[in-house]
Amino acid sequence: MQSPALLPDEQVASAYIELRARVVSLLRSLPADAGDITVPHCPQWTVHNLAAHMFGVPDDIVSGRMEGVASDAWTQAQVERSRSRTVGEIADALESVAARFDPMLPHIPPMARSQMTMDAVTHEHDLRHAVGVPGARDSSAVRAALGWLGVWVEGRVPGGHSALFAAGLSDFDLLRCLTGRRSVAQAVALGLDAEILQRVQANSPLRAPLVDVVE
User: Fold this and answer.
1) pTM higher than 0.90, yes or no?
2) For site-directed labelling of 57, which of 23, 78, 191, 207 has its Cα 20 to 30 A away?
């Protein structure tokens, strides 16, 4: 197997733009009360909270609010800033911020850009699961996310990339296992090595849930 590598910069940027359009469309299609739905993969968040985070990341980048980036306090501030918006209004804001954010995309460091895309596509599928609208499981954003995850895995556990990425999972299942959206038991049933997976995820935000979450 080849060494892990990020997708080319322009592919990652395009993948993010495409997934953002899918999320905006999905959020606009939801009924007014959908914002109150709990997100099973992020059980402390509702659909409204998750949408606020997905808008909050590019909004923080263009506004220069990067202190404490990726911390709980940083993401909670994103949720609070959109507290008064409806889910539809968050969708509008996410679409509108593109005019300022997209010109910045080529200038974001490659690892950070790919990690941002990994986070966004992970949450796209968290959202889809919460509202019962699956889709886009073979998107370019999934592949961009796996590029970042491959580098991340190998950096945490040398040899982990070969062990996990050669297990024969679909791109989507591998993404969901590596980002903590499958329990260890579910990952093992799909063919992953539990010991290596747990070593990779230890002391990271991408830890496997204790109970199965079925998609």
Assistant:
1) yes
2) 207
